[in-house]
Amino acid sequence: MSRRSGILEFAVLGLLRESPMHGYELRKRLNTSLGVFRAFSYGTLYPCLKALVANGWLTEETDGDAEGVPAAALTGRRAKIVYRLTAEGKEHFEELLAHSGPDAWEDEHFGVRFAFFGQTSRDVRMRVLEGRRSRLEERLEKMRTSLARSRERLDDYTLELQRHGMESVEREVRWLNGLIESERAGRDHRAPDPAAQNKKNQSGDTGGLPRHRGGSRPDPSDDTTT
Fold it and tell me: Please, which residues bridge with residue 85 across strands?
């Protein structure tokens, strides 16, 4: 499995752990919430979904299955497929959440891992944050060394571009320092368990938070079954 497909699998399982979704809704969440997937296509998502279904980590359902009536019979349109996390899928996602190796520190992976920190234990969060900081500090040192060696050969614009890159890395290091300090101080920002929160919402208790407003109109050409 490639790194790209691995992080997509992780993101899909994480989003579906929050709630079942149509492929259209899932793609929208990936596009808007996880910047690394802004440019990816349905041609990338659906093979991933099919593989997760084949592994037993997701199930495919159609609208109206809960009532035993095909959605097409109710709407006159083709039924839309809903993807739902299985118990095995939840267990697999928990295993992925516990991983804190070097892959979790890389540019493409870190943002996605960070998006699910609310579901991640504090010790794993700390290892990922400290690993990311160490990786950036190494990068920053190399950038400074390279700039010192080549400064005299660079024109003003190339020099400014390299300085801009260094400042971006320095800002992220400062941000990571703040997060690590917060974690060490014991300020736990974990989100509530999605299943528990869903039960509270169904009972009318939103815990002071606004209710989720769904209703994004799905693409009628997407997620259909004949």
Answer: 58
> What's the rounded Cα separation, in Å, for the pair 117 and 122?
9
Q: What token pair was written down for 108?
A: 């493409």
Supply φ then ψ for residue 62, to 5 degrees: -115, 150
d(CA 62, CA 148): 61
Q: Render pLDDT for 15-47 as a digit per residue (tens, 0 to 9).
A: 999 999 998 888 888 887 776 666 666 678 889
Can you give the pLDDT at residue 222?
A: 46
Nearest to residue 59, comparing CAs of 97, 79, 88, 31? Answer: 88
Query: Which is nearest to 15 in space by CA: 4, 28, 2?
Result: 28
Task: Single out the residue of 101, 133, 111, 129 nearest to residue 14, CA to CA.
Answer: 111
Rg (CA), the chain: 22
pTM of the model: 0.70
Q: Read off the amino acid at residue 82.
A: V
CA atoms within 13 A on the CB side of 128: 27
pLDDT tens digits along 140-178: 999 999 998 888 888 889 999 999 999 999 999 999 999
What single letter denotes the amino acid at residue 134? S
Look up residue 75 and give its two tokens: 């709407």
Nearest to 139 by CA among 173, 108, 110, 112: 173
